[in-house]
Amino acid sequence: MRSFTYERAANPQAAARAVAARPGAKFIAGGTNLLDLMKLEIETPTHLVDIQDAGLGSIEETTEGGLRIGAFVTNTALSAHPRIMRDYAVLTRAIQAGASGQLRNKATTAGNMLQRTRCPYFYDPNMPCNKRKPGSGCAAVGGFSRQLGVVGVSDKCIATYPGDMANAMTVLDAVVETIAPDGTTRAILASEFHRLWGDTPEIETALKPGELVTAVVLPKPVGGTHVYRKVRDRASYAFALVSVAAIIQPDGSGRVSFGGVAPRPWRTAKADDALPLGAKAVVQQAFAGATPRDDNRFKIPLAERTLAAVLADVRS
Fold first, then answer.
1. Which of 23, 29, 72, 30 lies closest to 44, judged by CA?
2. At residue 62, what are phi and psi to the nearest 5 degrees?
3. What is the b/e burial string over 10-43, where b = at least 16 CB atoms within 10 angstroms of the residue's CB?
């Protein structure tokens, strides 16, 4: 790990200003992903701005009947919050499907949304990777791709976004709130927060330089049955091959988002519309235009079977 300097910010705007003022500076919250990347020298920040004193650790009711979740709320606290468990159960189930208890105690809401891909070629500094070093190439294209993306990827990068929580945030129509160094704020739909790779896979989110995530806002509950099902290579502490976050209404309509298949949680309006027609129709819509490799072609039928199991559970 390379040397760096460190400070704690007293409020969100001070944190954003501190990062914007120093080239190579980064925010740190729980640090569960960042510190691993620093040890491998994939991330080499020159200065860390800690947001633990910035007043972002609470969950508050909104006037619209939803909840505002501070960026520094831990995954454990969020998954166990009574309103989350009652009204947004897909979020509780997604969080509890991820990582370990120890990591969930430390990981934060914003940090979870911002965790980086687990593509093995990204984690190996000896391999070319356009995400780690733009223009160097992508060893995953033509390499071993079992864990990697089948839809929304490009010839520059086929990595996936790995998180479970953001998959639930997407199906809940959550909104990410941010603050810039000049104090201006933005609201970004969770479904648009992560970018598709295109020609610039090193740019992973809609955030601008120095912009800090301050909260994630859940809208008023929509009811329905909330389900999160994750298929992985071992029973715990593994990232999804395919995951399904779904909210199903009594008439069979609803929302569905797939994880482990794309650069971001994968939800489309046409797939939502097809839910009353069953899993096959949904997957045909969601994965139209998919470009799987030989190693990960299985993900598309796996997505159909996983969703079919979800719908069967809901009906029973």
1. 23
2. -100, 160
3. eebbbbbbbbbebeebbbbbbbbbbeebbeeebb
Q: How high is the pLDDT of residue 237?
A: 83
Rounded to the nearest integer, the mean pLDDT of the chain is: 97
Question: The whole model's pTM is what?
Answer: 0.96
Of 83, 112, 111, 110, nearest to 96 (Cα)?
112
Task: Report pLDDT digits (tens) over 130-169.
Answer: 999 999 999 999 999 999 999 999 999 999 999 999 999 9
For the stretch 30-73, pLDDT in tens is 999 999 999 999 999 999 999 999 999 999 999 999 999 999 99
User: Buried b / exposed e across 46-63, counting CB within 10 Å, b at 16+?
Assistant: ebbbbbeebebbebeeee
Amino acid at 234: R
The distance from CA 83 to its chain's CA centroid, rounded to whole angstroms, is: 21
Give me the amino acid identity at 259: G
